[in-house]
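Structure, all two chains, one model.
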Amino acid sequence: MSEVRLQVEHLCKSFGITKAVADVSFNINKGEVHALIGENGSGKSTLTNMLTGIYTIDSGKFILDGKEVNPKNQVDANNEGISIIVQELGTLSGLTVAENIFLGHEDKFTKFGIKNTNLMNKIATDLLKKYGFERIKAGEIIDHYNFEDRKLIEIVKATYFDPKIVVIDETTTALSNEGRHELYKHMERIKKSGNTVIFISHDLPEILEKSDTITVLRDGVYIDTVLSKDMDEEGLRKLMVGRELEGDYYRKDYGDSVRDEVVLSVKKVSVPGILNDVSFELHRGEILGFGGLSESGMHEIGKAVFGASYDRSGSVVLADGTQINDIPTAIANSIAYTSKDRDNESVVMNQSIGDNICLPSLDKLTSKWKFLSDRAMNDFANEYAKKMSVKMVNTEQFVSDLSGGNKQKVVLARWIGKDSDIVVLDSPTRGIDIKVKQDIYNLMNHMIKNGKSIIMISEELMELIGMCDRIIIMKDGKISGEIDRSVEIGENTLISMMV
Amino acid sequence: MNKNNILRAVLPIAGLFVIFIIFNIFTNWRMVSNLPLVLSQAYVVMISATGVFFIMTMGGLDFSQGSILGISSIAVCILSKYNIPLAILGGVCTGAIIGGINGYFYVNRKIQSFIVTICTMFLLRGVIRYLTTNAPVAGSAALVNFDTIELKVGITVIIVLTAFVIFRFTKFGKYLKAIGAGEKAAIFAGIRTDNMKFLVYVLAGAMTGFAAFINVIKVGSVTSSGGSQLETQILIALVLGGMPISGGAKVRFENIIIGSLLYIVLNSGLTMMGFSTQMMQLIQGVVFLIFVAVFADRKSIQVIK
């Protein structure tokens, strides 16, 4: 066995009454990729956030190479040799690439209080070259690069100083295939150099392939540490969920519920710079999937249908001829939308679960004298929160306290409460664990059986293949292919249309 | 965080009680015996604060309230010479129009609300000075006849109660809170946020325009300083009442009532104890800062600018 790098000892962290991490102890070795898995809210991110100084430790300790570490912030953590690549955007807008890379370490380039920008840019350029990212210019403002490139810059930022531990938190879900390979390459390099990667991901095949050791957490409690080579997906799922799960959780039928009736037609829709002349029809009882690269314009489709696109031309028309041009009209005509940007566009973060669920249905909940009663709202919120089995203390709890999966459940509860007929789901399972994923798939199944129609936009090809009656592939703002549901479709068929 | 919530709920009420008792002890119970006089300052603040409460709930600010009160008071005075109901209506409309101007620049021109309202504050203060250059604007002699406690209390109670019902038991209040807690998400939940924002500024202007009537019946005329400092009084009152400056889901309607009373008690208490105006401003400034520091909802403000 190799040497121990990090000992986690009796670590605890609570948020209010919720124990996010409860007395967790395990070891992480040198020169390994150590995966941390568990459902949403199992405490993975909380644990690594404590390690990297984002959260404070309640009790317990981290021992790095025999010495206790307790970083107060991320810069402090960097100095101890610990860095992190976060789930969402971890770079700062308005700064240059070089400034981002050396954020918090400007001292190295500062003499008599004056920063030597040239030197900083030069070293950053050398680093980018070393990583093979020559096309990224060190002196450029970071906003000129897209999400993917900014993630690559984060890789440089988190690894250039050869930290002993690099935490990669759920980064791969946001990356395209090339981006992922770039990341894998660097994980491999870090491991070879004798340092350690802590890898958090929901993608089990990826975990099994890329990690050496896997530690499983469930509800903040340590479950087990296993070797990847001894494990399969089924076994991991069992450890994560704590009970047997059906191996196949996608749809089993092949288009039984699709009817000929068209419920929504999108005609010649364009959004400057994003969508170009897109037309399609959605049928009753159909799940219509949209796939493509992140920048292909597929995410804008959802916004266009929901009336949320800025400067859209063309038309979105319902079966009865109603034109959808703004969000209130869309909602009034029974269209629902869950955004990829869950925290900003789907839920009102600093508001209670109850209010979030009731918000679009307030008209339905008001009495004929236009009054709202607390009880009506409470009952409504509780009914649908229960239906979606949202994990919560009560409906008064703020959404900001919930994990990603639970937030998504609140969003879905809201639209089920509204009884929407056309549901647009953009990346519905992004960053969500298997159990909630399965709940969402079941819900979708249930909806189409009841004659609802769904548009599902997703970057996960398996999910599209598994769930959709029809898949439209987008490329450069246009439709580049369409494929009907069948057993024969594989990921490669779709990828060839995407690139 | 939980402790903070309790503090936010209890401190204003306890503060009101304690301050009231303390001042009464210091002033030999003169405050109780002069209660009508003390309260007479509260009506305008309370009515205007209700409008500003709506604005602040959705995350905006309004510094132009004092100037709105001044201009509307002038309108009331001038129109009162023709007809009293017309004067009241004129005041309301003047306030609503200025609120509309605020709303237009805030919503349509997309300028931050505090910048817009500081601009209108200066602009209108100039107009007030101009209109009162030679002499205060006097209203009809009949105006002061309306200055009865019953009328003022009655009107204030009706307005505040109506506003409470609307805020607490209709979707209006829910929408305002949602906008304050997360505007983008509110848009995606189907709320016409731009319309709401504009409407609320007009409403707040109209309410202060109405308060102008109560302001005018006290003395029957407006001087160049008419309505000045009202915006700060409102802001201090709301914050003293436990209102989080950033608005959102944690605001409570009680903030207005308790805050206005707390402010008035503090203000008259200090006056009765013989503090000079300068000294009072200093004390108010210190109290204001302490309350903001205690109540600021730091969790909901992601970046402190």
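Residues 193-219 of chain B form the longest helix (27 residues).
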